Amino acid sequence: MFDAVLIEKGDQGSRASLTTLEEDRLPPGDVTLRVAWSTLNYKDALAITGKGPVVRSFPMVPGIDLAGIVEQSDNPGYKPGDKVVLNGWGVGETHWGGLAGKARLKGDWLVPLQSPFTLRQAMAIGTAGYTAMLCVMALERHGVTPDAGEVLVTGAAGGVGSVAVALLAKLGYRVVAMTGRREEADYLTTLGAGEVIDRGDYTQPGKPLARERWAGAVDVVGGQVLANICAAMRYRGTVAACGLAGGMALPATVAPFILRGVTLAGIDSVMCPRAERLEAWRRLASDLDPGKLDALTREVPLADVIPTTDLLMAGQVRGRIIVPVN
Ligand code: NDP
């Protein structure tokens, strides 16, 4: 028996509850593991509140991240006792996820715990931090170097944003953090932001081309904010776009792309190939100051996960939430 958050479908839509499950209810898979830590991401909040079409089959254990210890394995890559991490691959959407005491899944989705991280630290990073690293790697691939100019991070006080600020600052970029919460300015400065700006102006419709400011950008907001960022990119700058916290639409023109050679680089962590995942985790080990992780992490017990999702949906959570499961 193990504790789990379970989302079930009823006449009135989906409903999440904390429950106890037996191991024989676990879905098929070649590796069974004890989940030590999971996390709470924006996507998990969408799944648990039912506010976004994240869950594709019911009943579903949410949780797009987990870190744990292998108990049983028919996969040649893993044996009992191995410490492993999982991010994405549809876990928490189409396959039972990490917000439960046990998980059974495809071993090919797992990555070994990256030294020197603990299981707890790996979840403090989680999908948000690994996605932030993928964004930074995309900027690098497109030639955005620290001497190219200022790099903007939106949704900076959230999970992806916080880790992106810390990573870019450690790599020597001048980071400008954009937030809707001015009260988080000290927090963002501690993470390494050189300047903190309000989201306000960027939420209003702007011109097709604005004053060139950003050499690079990591955007989690989408919508009008992303359109205005594209318009304010410097010649041949790159925006790594990974989120939709401010909306799915993109009310932009092609002007920045065809007149300034701007690149809009899409980032997907869920189906990202294994080699790039491993590279992202290696880079996190070398480029993320573990001391900064403590400042951006908060623990929420499994029993409090469901009420905490409302705070996440309201944009009131700072940094990362980790969930001690076992
Ligand atoms: P968080 O909830 O931790 O952070 C989101 C941040 O976005 C908030 O802290 C806030 O920033 C800002 N925000 C919230 N609501 C709005 C709004 N209505 N308008 C503008 N900004 C808003 O989420 P995560 O960091 O976990 O995820 C951020 C986004 O990235 C989500 O859309 C998520 O789905 C996406 N994502 C995508 C991945 C991918 O593979 N492509 C992987 C991981 C996340 P502030 O507090 O600074 O105001």
TrEMBL record:
Keyword Ribonucleoprotein: no
UniProt keyword terms in alphabetical order: Membrane, Transmembrane, Transmembrane helix
Protein name, UniProt field: Oxidoreductase
Organism, scientific name: Belnapia mucosa
Any Pfam family the entry gives: ADH_zinc_N
Superkingdom, taxonomy of origin: Bacteria
Transmembrane regions listed in the UniProt entry: 151-173
Domain Enoyl reductase (ER): start-end pairs: 13-323
